UniProtKB/TrEMBL annotation:
Gene Ontology MF annotations: heme binding
Gene3D superfamilies for the chain: H-NOX domain
The protein's name: Heme NO-binding domain-containing protein
Upper classification of the organism: Bacteria, Pseudomonadati, Bacteroidota, Flavobacteriia, Flavobacteriales
Domain Heme NO-binding: 2-161
InterPro entries recorded: H-NOX_domain_sf, Heme_NO-bd, NO_sig/Golgi_transp_ligand-bd
Length: 179
């Protein structure tokens, strides 16, 4: 997992819960990196799981809810860092439908060894999108948060339903209907 995911996560934890909480969750975790991350480094996903679990335990906030908040923060980071990417789109459905064939292609240019989930578009209309998320990492709520922020970015709203195709959350169908 790319380091930017870790550095931004810890920045969010510090902003929302304080530097002491950052120290607490790092100290409670058994991290090969010792909690020292660079944005361009690559780290084990198990480290993110530990940090999330300890943050959840210390704050009494469910991991899925933490991932939603983190995704909103991360979208804003992407918006500031790569405004040209978002500017190529005029519609949230079009943008979400292009994750696999455009956005992930651009991400791989910056981070060639990034392990990204796949998004298969099953059905698309002007006001709806059905796609399947597949990943060895069950972070579909992170994807949901990014989708919510995508609609917000375009001053639009949508109803987004999740349908787990695999119980462990590694394969999830997103059913998106613009309001």
């Amino acid at each position: 997992m790319k380091g930017i995911v870790f550095t931004e996560f810890l920045d969010l934890v510090e902003a929302k819960f304080g530097l002491e909480m950052v120290d607490t969750i790092i100290s409670q975790s058994e991290l090969e990196s010792e909690g020292i991350y660079t944005a361009v480094g690559t780290y084990k996903f198990s480290e993110m799981l530990q940090l999330l679990q300890h943050l959840s335990t210390n704050t009494n906030i469910e991991i899925d809810d933490l991932l939603l908040v983190y995704a909103e923060h991360f979208f804003d980071v992407l918006k500031q860092s790569y405004p040209g990417l978002l500017a190529t789109y005029k519609d949230p459905i079009d943008m979400l439908a292009s994750i696999e064939n455009h956005i992930h292609v651009e991400v791989r240019k910056i981070y060639p060894d990034a392990e990204l989930p796949t998004f298969e578009v099953l059905d698309k209309t002007d006001n709806s999108l059905v796609m399947v998320y597949k990943s060895s990492r069950a972070m579909h709520h992170f994807g949901l948060g990014l989708m919510n922020k995508t609609f917000e970015h375009f001053d639009s709203t949508a109803t987004i339903e999740l349908e787990k195709m695999k119980e462990d959350g590694t394969e999830v169908k997103f059913i998106i209907n613009r309001n």
